[in-house]
Amino acid sequence: MDIEKLSFGICPVGRGLARAGDAWSMLILRDAGLGRTRFDDFQKSLGIAPNILTRRLATLVEAGMLERRRYSERPPRDEYVLTEAGRDYLPVLQALGGWARKHFGEGPISELVDARSGRTITPLVVDAETGVPLSKIPVTLRQPGDA
Amino acid sequence: MDIEKLSFGICPVGRGLARAGDAWSMLILRDAGLGRTRFDDFQKSLGIAPNILTRRLATLVEAGMLERRRYSERPPRDEYVLTEAGRDYLPVLQALGGWARKHFGEGPISELVDARSGRTITPLVVDAETGVPLSKIPVTLRQPGDA
DNA sequence: CACATTACTATCAAAATGCAAGTCGCTCGA
DNA sequence: TCGAGCGACTTGCATTTTGATAGTAATGTG
Questions:
Q1: Strand C neighbours with CB under 7 A?
Q2: What is the mean pLDDT of residues A73-81?
Protein backbone atom coordinates (compact mmCIF):
# COMPACT_ATOMS: atom_id res chain seq x y z
CA MET A 1 0.00 0.00 0.00
CA ASP A 2 0.94 3.62 -0.16
CA ILE A 3 3.23 4.34 2.77
CA GLU A 4 3.47 8.05 2.01
CA LYS A 5 -0.16 8.62 2.85
CA LEU A 6 0.20 6.91 6.19
CA SER A 7 3.46 8.57 7.22
CA PHE A 8 1.97 11.91 7.97
CA GLY A 9 -1.54 10.85 8.77
CA ILE A 10 -2.95 12.08 12.03
CA CYS A 11 -3.69 8.59 13.32
CA PRO A 12 -0.89 7.09 15.40
CA VAL A 13 -1.73 3.60 14.21
CA GLY A 14 -1.23 4.70 10.62
CA ARG A 15 2.10 6.26 11.46
CA GLY A 16 3.21 3.15 13.22
CA LEU A 17 2.29 1.04 10.25
CA ALA A 18 4.32 3.31 8.01
CA ARG A 19 7.43 2.33 10.00
CA ALA A 20 6.78 -1.33 10.54
CA GLY A 21 3.62 -2.26 8.76
CA ASP A 22 4.41 -5.48 7.01
CA ALA A 23 4.90 -8.98 8.25
CA TRP A 24 8.55 -9.37 7.24
CA SER A 25 9.58 -6.20 9.03
CA MET A 26 7.86 -7.32 12.19
CA LEU A 27 9.44 -10.74 12.05
CA ILE A 28 12.87 -9.21 11.51
CA LEU A 29 12.34 -6.98 14.53
CA ARG A 30 11.18 -9.95 16.57
CA ASP A 31 14.37 -11.80 15.62
CA ALA A 32 16.45 -8.74 16.40
CA GLY A 33 14.82 -8.68 19.82
CA LEU A 34 15.86 -12.29 20.31
CA GLY A 35 19.45 -11.32 19.70
CA ARG A 36 19.99 -11.85 16.03
CA THR A 37 22.02 -9.18 14.27
CA ARG A 38 23.43 -10.56 11.06
CA PHE A 39 22.11 -10.88 7.54
CA ASP A 40 22.50 -14.64 7.41
CA ASP A 41 20.96 -15.09 10.84
CA PHE A 42 17.82 -13.38 9.67
CA GLN A 43 17.82 -15.13 6.36
CA LYS A 44 18.11 -18.63 7.79
CA SER A 45 15.75 -17.98 10.65
CA LEU A 46 13.01 -16.52 8.50
CA GLY A 47 13.50 -18.35 5.22
CA ILE A 48 13.20 -15.00 3.49
CA ALA A 49 14.65 -14.45 0.03
CA PRO A 50 17.89 -12.46 0.26
CA ASN A 51 16.80 -9.67 -2.06
CA ILE A 52 13.68 -9.10 0.02
CA LEU A 53 15.71 -9.15 3.22
CA THR A 54 18.08 -6.54 1.82
CA ARG A 55 15.18 -4.25 1.03
CA ARG A 56 13.45 -4.76 4.36
CA LEU A 57 16.62 -4.13 6.32
CA ALA A 58 17.20 -0.96 4.33
CA THR A 59 13.70 0.35 5.02
CA LEU A 60 13.97 -0.50 8.71
CA VAL A 61 17.28 1.34 8.91
CA GLU A 62 15.76 4.30 7.12
CA ALA A 63 12.73 4.21 9.41
CA GLY A 64 15.03 4.45 12.42
CA MET A 65 14.26 1.00 13.79
CA LEU A 66 17.62 -0.59 13.11
CA GLU A 67 21.13 0.73 12.96
CA ARG A 68 23.62 -0.67 10.52
CA ARG A 69 27.01 -1.05 12.07
CA ARG A 70 30.30 -2.23 10.65
CA TYR A 71 31.79 -4.82 12.91
CA SER A 72 34.68 -5.81 10.69
CA GLU A 73 36.66 -3.75 8.19
CA ARG A 74 38.48 -6.58 6.54
CA PRO A 75 36.47 -8.36 5.32
CA PRO A 76 33.77 -5.68 5.34
CA ARG A 77 30.93 -6.98 7.50
CA ASP A 78 27.85 -5.22 8.83
CA GLU A 79 25.40 -6.06 11.53
CA TYR A 80 21.99 -4.65 12.33
CA VAL A 81 21.14 -3.66 15.86
CA LEU A 82 17.94 -2.25 17.31
CA THR A 83 17.74 1.47 17.93
CA GLU A 84 15.84 2.77 20.93
CA ALA A 85 12.70 3.04 18.83
CA GLY A 86 13.26 -0.53 17.69
CA ARG A 87 13.67 -1.85 21.22
CA ASP A 88 10.57 0.03 22.29
CA TYR A 89 8.64 -1.69 19.57
CA LEU A 90 9.22 -5.16 20.97
CA PRO A 91 6.49 -4.97 23.62
CA VAL A 92 4.01 -4.23 20.84
CA LEU A 93 5.06 -7.45 19.15
CA GLN A 94 4.81 -9.29 22.44
CA ALA A 95 1.29 -7.97 22.89
CA LEU A 96 0.49 -9.25 19.42
CA GLY A 97 1.98 -12.62 20.31
CA GLY A 98 0.00 -12.78 23.52
CA TRP A 99 -3.18 -12.06 21.66
CA ALA A 100 -2.45 -14.77 19.08
CA ARG A 101 -1.64 -17.30 21.80
CA LYS A 102 -4.92 -16.59 23.50
CA HIS A 103 -7.11 -16.85 20.43
CA PHE A 104 -5.23 -19.10 18.03
CA GLY A 105 -2.95 -21.00 20.35
CA GLU A 106 -3.96 -24.58 19.46
CA GLY A 107 -1.14 -26.99 18.81
CA PRO A 108 2.51 -26.53 19.67
CA ILE A 109 3.32 -22.89 20.25
CA SER A 110 6.12 -21.24 22.14
CA GLU A 111 5.62 -18.95 25.09
CA LEU A 112 7.21 -15.82 26.43
CA VAL A 113 9.25 -16.29 29.59
CA ASP A 114 11.31 -14.10 31.88
CA ALA A 115 14.90 -14.87 30.90
CA ARG A 116 16.02 -14.79 34.53
CA SER A 117 13.26 -16.44 36.52
CA GLY A 118 11.82 -18.60 33.76
CA ARG A 119 8.32 -17.47 34.71
CA THR A 120 5.72 -17.35 31.98
CA ILE A 121 4.82 -13.83 30.96
CA THR A 122 1.37 -12.83 29.76
CA PRO A 123 1.46 -9.47 27.98
CA LEU A 124 -1.36 -7.10 28.74
CA VAL A 125 -1.98 -3.60 27.44
CA VAL A 126 -2.95 -1.17 30.17
CA ASP A 127 -3.29 2.55 30.66
CA ALA A 128 0.10 3.64 32.00
CA GLU A 129 -1.39 5.93 34.61
CA THR A 130 -4.11 3.82 36.13
CA GLY A 131 -3.01 0.31 35.23
CA VAL A 132 -6.49 -0.46 33.94
CA PRO A 133 -6.52 -2.85 30.95
CA LEU A 134 -7.39 -1.02 27.77
CA SER A 135 -9.92 -3.71 26.92
CA LYS A 136 -12.02 -2.34 29.80
CA ILE A 137 -11.94 1.27 28.67
CA PRO A 138 -14.21 2.68 25.97
CA VAL A 139 -11.89 4.85 23.92
CA THR A 140 -12.07 7.38 21.14
CA LEU A 141 -9.53 9.41 19.25
CA ARG A 142 -9.18 13.10 19.88
CA GLN A 143 -8.20 14.93 16.71
CA PRO A 144 -5.38 17.46 16.95
CA GLY A 145 -7.71 20.45 16.50
CA ASP A 146 -10.27 19.42 19.14
CA ALA A 147 -10.95 21.01 22.50
CA MET B 1 4.36 -13.14 1.98
CA ASP B 2 3.40 -16.74 2.47
CA ILE B 3 0.69 -16.83 5.10
CA GLU B 4 0.52 -20.61 5.20
CA LYS B 5 3.98 -20.91 6.67
CA LEU B 6 3.16 -18.48 9.45
CA SER B 7 -0.24 -19.91 10.35
CA PHE B 8 1.07 -22.98 12.08
CA GLY B 9 4.45 -21.72 13.11
CA ILE B 10 5.35 -22.12 16.74
CA CYS B 11 5.94 -18.43 17.28
CA PRO B 12 2.89 -16.53 18.50
CA VAL B 13 3.97 -13.40 16.65
CA GLY B 14 3.98 -15.33 13.39
CA ARG B 15 0.53 -16.69 14.08
CA GLY B 16 -0.75 -13.26 14.89
CA LEU B 17 0.62 -11.89 11.67
CA ALA B 18 -1.11 -14.67 9.76
CA ARG B 19 -4.45 -13.29 10.98
CA ALA B 20 -3.82 -9.59 10.73
CA GLY B 21 -0.41 -9.08 9.23
CA ASP B 22 -0.87 -6.36 6.70
CA ALA B 23 -1.47 -2.67 7.00
CA TRP B 24 -4.92 -2.60 5.41
CA SER B 25 -6.27 -5.28 7.71
CA MET B 26 -5.00 -3.42 10.74
CA LEU B 27 -6.49 -0.15 9.57
CA ILE B 28 -9.83 -1.84 8.91
CA LEU B 29 -9.80 -3.27 12.41
CA ARG B 30 -8.89 0.11 13.83
CA ASP B 31 -11.87 1.62 12.04
CA ALA B 32 -14.09 -1.21 13.20
CA GLY B 33 -12.98 -0.43 16.74
CA LEU B 34 -14.03 3.17 16.21
CA GLY B 35 -17.50 2.02 15.33
CA ARG B 36 -17.50 1.68 11.58
CA THR B 37 -19.30 -1.36 10.24
CA ARG B 38 -20.19 -0.79 6.62
CA PHE B 39 -18.37 -1.29 3.36
CA ASP B 40 -18.67 2.30 2.27
CA ASP B 41 -17.65 3.59 5.69
CA PHE B 42 -14.40 1.71 5.44
CA GLN B 43 -13.88 2.63 1.84
CA LYS B 44 -14.33 6.33 2.34
CA SER B 45 -12.41 6.45 5.59
CA LEU B 46 -9.41 4.57 4.28
CA GLY B 47 -9.39 5.56 0.61
CA ILE B 48 -8.90 1.89 -0.20
CA ALA B 49 -9.86 0.51 -3.61
CA PRO B 50 -13.13 -1.41 -3.40
CA ASN B 51 -11.76 -4.65 -4.78
CA ILE B 52 -8.99 -4.64 -2.22
CA LEU B 53 -11.44 -3.88 0.55
CA THR B 54 -13.63 -6.79 -0.53
CA ARG B 55 -10.67 -9.14 -0.32
CA ARG B 56 -9.45 -7.84 3.02
CA LEU B 57 -12.88 -8.05 4.58
CA ALA B 58 -13.23 -11.61 3.34
CA THR B 59 -9.89 -12.67 4.84
CA LEU B 60 -10.68 -10.95 8.13
CA VAL B 61 -14.02 -12.76 8.27
CA GLU B 62 -12.31 -16.04 7.47
CA ALA B 63 -9.65 -15.35 10.08
CA GLY B 64 -12.35 -14.93 12.69
CA MET B 65 -11.72 -11.23 13.31
CA LEU B 66 -14.92 -9.89 11.80
CA GLU B 67 -18.40 -11.29 11.45
CA ARG B 68 -20.50 -10.54 8.43
CA ARG B 69 -24.05 -9.85 9.36
CA ARG B 70 -27.08 -9.08 7.28
CA TYR B 71 -28.79 -6.02 8.61
CA SER B 72 -31.37 -5.66 5.88
CA GLU B 73 -33.04 -8.32 3.76
CA ARG B 74 -34.58 -6.05 1.20
CA PRO B 75 -32.42 -4.63 -0.16
CA PRO B 76 -29.75 -7.13 0.91
CA ARG B 77 -27.19 -5.27 3.02
CA ASP B 78 -24.35 -6.59 5.13
CA GLU B 79 -22.27 -5.09 7.86
CA TYR B 80 -19.05 -6.22 9.47
CA VAL B 81 -18.73 -6.34 13.20
CA LEU B 82 -15.81 -7.31 15.40
CA THR B 83 -15.78 -10.79 16.89
CA GLU B 84 -14.36 -11.31 20.36
CA ALA B 85 -10.94 -12.01 18.85
CA GLY B 86 -11.26 -8.83 16.85
CA ARG B 87 -12.16 -6.73 19.88
CA ASP B 88 -9.29 -8.25 21.80
CA TYR B 89 -6.96 -7.17 19.05
CA LEU B 90 -7.68 -3.48 19.51
CA PRO B 91 -5.37 -3.00 22.50
CA VAL B 92 -2.53 -4.32 20.36
CA LEU B 93 -3.27 -1.60 17.82
CA GLN B 94 -3.47 0.95 20.60
CA ALA B 95 -0.07 -0.15 21.87
CA LEU B 96 1.24 0.29 18.34
CA GLY B 97 -0.30 3.73 18.19
CA GLY B 98 1.20 4.67 21.52
CA TRP B 99 4.61 3.60 20.37
CA ALA B 100 4.30 5.62 17.16
CA ARG B 101 3.14 8.69 19.07
CA LYS B 102 6.13 8.47 21.33
CA HIS B 103 8.75 8.04 18.64
CA PHE B 104 7.26 9.63 15.56
CA GLY B 105 4.72 11.99 16.99
CA GLU B 106 5.89 15.26 15.46
CA GLY B 107 3.25 17.40 13.86
CA PRO B 108 -0.50 17.10 14.25
CA ILE B 109 -1.45 13.68 15.53
CA SER B 110 -4.52 12.44 17.32
CA GLU B 111 -4.50 10.94 20.76
CA LEU B 112 -6.32 8.18 22.55
CA VAL B 113 -8.80 9.32 25.18
CA ASP B 114 -11.21 7.69 27.59
CA ALA B 115 -14.60 8.16 25.96
CA ARG B 116 -16.24 8.89 29.30
CA SER B 117 -13.77 11.00 31.23
CA GLY B 118 -11.92 12.48 28.28
CA ARG B 119 -8.62 11.68 29.97
CA THR B 120 -5.65 10.97 27.75
CA ILE B 121 -4.66 7.34 27.73
CA THR B 122 -1.09 6.15 27.32
CA PRO B 123 -0.97 2.48 26.37
CA LEU B 124 1.67 0.39 28.09
CA VAL B 125 2.41 -3.31 27.73
CA VAL B 126 2.94 -5.02 31.07
CA ASP B 127 3.13 -8.52 32.46
CA ALA B 128 -0.44 -9.32 33.50
CA GLU B 129 0.62 -10.93 36.76
CA THR B 130 3.11 -8.48 38.14
CA GLY B 131 2.21 -5.30 36.30
CA VAL B 132 5.85 -4.77 35.39
CA PRO B 133 6.38 -3.13 31.97
CA LEU B 134 7.68 -5.64 29.43
CA SER B 135 10.36 -3.20 28.38
CA LYS B 136 11.97 -3.81 31.80
CA ILE B 137 12.00 -7.58 31.54
CA PRO B 138 14.60 -9.55 29.59
CA VAL B 139 12.58 -12.17 27.79
CA THR B 140 13.11 -15.30 25.74
CA LEU B 141 10.83 -17.74 24.02
CA ARG B 142 10.35 -21.20 25.43
CA GLN B 143 9.80 -23.72 22.67
CA PRO B 144 6.92 -26.17 23.07
CA GLY B 145 9.23 -29.16 23.69
CA ASP B 146 11.38 -27.51 26.37
CA ALA B 147 11.52 -28.27 30.07
C1' DC C 1 44.72 -23.59 -4.80
C1' DA C 2 40.07 -25.16 -3.50
C1' DC C 3 36.66 -24.14 -0.60
C1' DA C 4 33.93 -21.81 2.88
C1' DT C 5 31.83 -17.62 4.89
C1' DT C 6 29.24 -13.33 4.87
C1' DA C 7 26.66 -10.16 2.64
C1' DC C 8 24.80 -9.17 -0.75
C1' DT C 9 22.96 -8.14 -6.59
C1' DA C 10 20.67 -9.59 -10.83
C1' DT C 11 17.18 -11.71 -13.42
C1' DC C 12 12.76 -12.84 -14.28
C1' DA C 13 8.26 -15.04 -13.44
C1' DA C 14 4.25 -14.87 -10.41
C1' DA C 15 1.27 -12.56 -7.36
C1' DA C 16 -0.74 -8.52 -5.31
C1' DT C 17 -2.24 -3.88 -5.76
C1' DG C 18 -4.69 0.08 -7.45
C1' DC C 19 -7.65 2.70 -10.48
C1' DA C 20 -11.65 3.28 -13.26
C1' DA C 21 -15.76 1.70 -14.79
C1' DG C 22 -19.65 -1.27 -14.59
C1' DT C 23 -23.32 -4.27 -12.19
C1' DC C 24 -27.16 -5.69 -9.23
C1' DG C 25 -31.02 -5.17 -6.22
C1' DC C 26 -33.60 -2.13 -4.49
C1' DT C 27 -35.94 2.53 -2.91
C1' DC C 28 -37.80 6.89 -3.60
C1' DG C 29 -39.44 11.05 -5.65
C1' DA C 30 -41.72 13.47 -9.83
C1' DT D 1 -43.24 4.42 -14.42
C1' DC D 2 -38.99 6.56 -15.35
C1' DG D 3 -34.89 7.83 -13.85
C1' DA D 4 -31.68 9.00 -10.19
C1' DG D 5 -29.37 7.25 -6.30
C1' DC D 6 -27.57 4.23 -2.77
C1' DG D 7 -24.95 0.33 -0.89
C1' DA D 8 -22.12 -3.22 -1.94
C1' DC D 9 -19.77 -4.92 -4.59
C1' DT D 10 -17.28 -7.19 -9.51
C1' DT D 11 -14.42 -6.88 -13.74
C1' DG D 12 -10.53 -5.58 -16.57
C1' DC D 13 -6.21 -4.17 -16.93
C1' DA D 14 -1.86 -1.67 -16.02
C1' DT D 15 1.51 -1.08 -12.45
C1' DT D 16 4.03 -2.58 -8.50
C1' DT D 17 5.84 -5.77 -5.39
C1' DT D 18 7.30 -10.22 -4.26
C1' DG D 19 9.80 -14.46 -4.37
C1' DA D 20 12.93 -18.20 -6.15
C1' DT D 21 17.16 -19.04 -7.98
C1' DA D 22 21.59 -18.00 -9.36
C1' DG D 23 25.50 -15.34 -9.29
C1' DT D 24 29.06 -11.95 -7.36
C1' DA D 25 32.60 -9.87 -4.25
C1' DA D 26 35.88 -9.77 -0.51
C1' DT D 27 38.25 -12.37 2.48
C1' DG D 28 39.87 -16.27 5.51
C1' DT D 29 41.17 -21.29 6.11
C1' DG D 30 43.44 -25.90 5.15
A1: A 1-2, 38-41, 49-51, 54, 57, 75, 77-79; B 22, 24, 47-52, 55, 74-76
A2: 89
